[in-house]
Amino acid sequence: MFDIRAIRENPEAFRAAWNRKKPELGNVVDNIHAHDAALRTAVTDKQEAEKLRNETSRLIGKAKASGDEAEFERLRKVVADAKDTIEAAGEQEEAARKLLDDLLFGLPNIPLAEVPEGQDEDGNVEKARWGEPKSYDFEVKDHADLGEALGMMDFETAAKMSGARFVLLKGKLARLERALAAFMLDVQTEEHGYTECSPPLLVKDQALVGTGQLPKFEEDLFKTQNPRIQEQYILGMKAVMIATMNAFEGRINTPLEKQLADEIVASRYDDETKYVRAGEIAGLLEREDLGFPEDWIQSSTSHFLIPTAEVPLTNIVRESIIEPGELPKRFTAHTPCFRSEAGSAGRDTKGMIRLHQFNKVEMVSVVANEEEGLAELERMTECAEAILKKLDLPFRRMLLCAGDMGAGARKTYDLEVWLPSQDTYREISSCSYCGDYQARRMNARYRPEAGAKPEFVHTLNGSGLAVGRTLVAILENYQNEDGSITVPEALRNYMGGLEVISA
After folding, report:
1. Which of 99, 210, 224, 356, by CA, is between 20 and 30 Å from 37?
2. Phi first, then psi: what are they for 345, rounded to 5°?
3. Distance (Å, rounded) from C-alpha 5 to C-alpha 2?
4. Is residue 376 classed as helix, strand or coil in its secondary structure?
């Protein structure tokens, strides 16, 4: 979300910034101006009509008292016309506001000036390297071949249960994955000051709107279905048709039917919500004495499995005002993540690089402003790098170009770990500074000092690390000629002293 006043005052800056994300995206500024102008016109018309109504209403009594019937009737018509204008302007205001909000909520964040130009990974800039890739005197295998040969990585069985891009880990590899997560959490909490959380894995749609995954990336998410809501949806479609017919013919039998006609048929909600609400009301038509339970209303909210713990961790500060001295806030969590995104054509179709379900240790920071945010980005990235250094895995730090960053980011570092089987570096962590982009969507604010006006916080998120991809990197970098895997020294205490994983 963006400050509409800032766009009004400096439209060309926003146009240029969005063009850096995607060529010609900046043309959206013209649409923003049009919707904003329509909104302001509707608001002005409504306010002027309200003023006229109020002023005229005060004169009606005087005209009535004086016996001036002609003036009385004239003033009554003025009030009636003003009410019609207020209603019409209110509808125009609501429509214009929805169009403007839908547009703004769907736009990506604007990159910082220091972010390099470019539209894809070719525009990213390498900033640093650590460690030297190991030389092998035998032909290296990829992680999938290694895991399957050990009998501890099973894609076929997982596919029978869940479909493609799932994996079943067994035995010592399952333990190694668990050890990695515990190790990462211990480092981030005990050495880097993050507060460990165990957040919900199922979140409302508004939580994803807050962090920017919705509405733009809904197709990449796993949405849940509530059977009762589906039933209400079908019932609601029938109820809307019946209520529409009854309202048209002047047949309103009960207050609930009137509510159905007034609220639902008036289309105050999107189609899905409208029909669910209609189903809820229809289900109560013969049980009016039960009222309209609040939990039924809430049940119509869509829920999604989290694509990353960034979503619940960032939403910890949703709709809150943080008091002076309480920033920065740093949270971390180990969770499964669920994404239906497809990889590049013909790439990562084998193995664990791109799964629909994977484990990750996420870091989230909440700070006061851009200066603190950029300093926190360096700190967060170093916290992620610390894991790779302790595991002795070669990596490089990449500064992403404008077009390759995520939608919510203003500046992003990717960490890429060396994979011997691919003879290249692959992403294992992404750390992003988001500015106040998420905070505006969540209405998350802080007070700079006691009694001061609240300001929007700034947020950051980063992987510390992707557990599955770290497992991949260990299998490939620590493989032996006989197919066994040496356990990194940093993990041996978490593995009960085990030094080598073998069949």
Report:
1. 210
2. -55, 125
3. 9
4. helix
Average pLDDT over residues 366-373: 98
**What strand order describes the sheet that includes 195-196?**
125-130, 395-399, 411-419, 424-433, 458-466, 357-367, 329-338, 195-196
Domain ranges of the chain: 4-105, 121-143+171-220+305-501, 227-301
pLDDT in tens, 200-248: 999 998 999 999 998 888 889 998 876 555 555 545 555 555 555 555 5
> Is the overall model pTM greater than 0.90, yes or no?
no
| 20-34 residues labelled b (16+ CB within 10 A) or e (exposed) | bbeeebbebbeebee
Q: How far apart are CA 58 and CA 6, in angstroms?
A: 40
Predicted pLDDT of residue 337: 97
Name the CATH topology of 121-143+171-220+305-501. Answer: BirA Bifunctional Protein; domain 2 (3.30.930)
Q: Is the pLDDT of residue 322 over 80?
A: yes
Neighbouring residues of 35: CB distance < 8 A, sequence distance ≥ 6: 96, 99, 100, 103
Judging by DSSP bridges, how do beta strands 424-433 and 458-466 pair with one another?
Answer: antiparallel
Amino acid symbol at 239: A
Measured in whole angstroms, how far is the alpha carbon of residue 281 from the centre of its chain? 31
Decide: residue 95, CB within 10 A, 0-12 exposed, 13-18 middle, 19+ buried.
middle
In the CATH hierarchy, which fold is given to the domain comprising 4-105? Helix Hairpins (1.10.287)
pLDDT in tens, 403-422: 999 999 999 999 999 999 99
pLDDT of 106 over the 80 cut: yes
